[in-house]
Amino acid sequence: MNYDVNTLTFQSGALGYVIDNSAASTLTIEGGITDSSATTETISAPVILGTTNSTTQTWTVDGTQLNVNGPITTGAGFAGFTKAGSGILQLGSTAKQFWSHYSSGRHAAAIGGRCIARC
């Protein structure tokens, strides 16, 4: 089953959720991610950035860490995301086809285990 959501939010009390790719599922995110949880959240399913227009989403990680291990692609045109917040965003897959921008401020991001912004 494939999932299409406007935004994905992990609230401050969220447990360590894992969104996996069982049954070859994909996760389409139209508007962004907010992770405020004190535990690490993981997305292993392939992520598609929007299908309706070419936009830049905001992925805010104010919690501990968000791991996105599945491939990230665009659904329509030129899509990407801005990482915000003081938490760590770990991108684990090497199969990525998206535009990304990391806004200034205190935050960290890594791709494939390599630090790319203030780790």
Structural class: mainly beta
What is the domain total for the residues?
A: 1
- The string of secondary-structure elements, in order, is EEEEEEEEEEEEEE
Tell the overall outline.
globular
Whole-angstrom Rg: 13 Å
- Report the major sheet: 8 strands, parallel
Percent range of helical residues: under 10%
Termini separation comes to 35 Å
What is the number of beta strands?
14
Report the total helices. Answer: 0
Strand-residue proportion = over 45%
Which helices and strands occur, and which strands form pairs?
Layout: E1 3-10, E2 18-19, E3 27-35, E4 41-43, E5 47-49, E6 56-61, E7 65-68, E8 72-74, E9 80-84, E10 88-91, E11 96-97, E12 99-102, E13 108-111, E14 114-117
Parallel strand pairs: 1-3, 2-4, 3-5, 3-6, 4-7, 5-8, 6-9, 7-10, 8-11, 9-12, 10-13
Antiparallel strand pairs: 13-14
Would you write up a description of this structure?
The protein has one domain. The protein has 119 residues and is mostly beta strands. The protein has strands at 3-10, 18-19, 27-35, 41-43, 47-49, 56-61, 65-68, 72-74, 80-84, 88-91, 96-97, 99-102, 108-111, 114-117. The strands form two sheets. Strands 1, 3, 5, 6, 8, 9, 11 and 12 form an eight-stranded parallel beta sheet that branches. Strands 2-4-7-10-13-14 form a six-stranded mixed beta sheet, with no helix packed on it. It starts with a strand and ends with a strand.
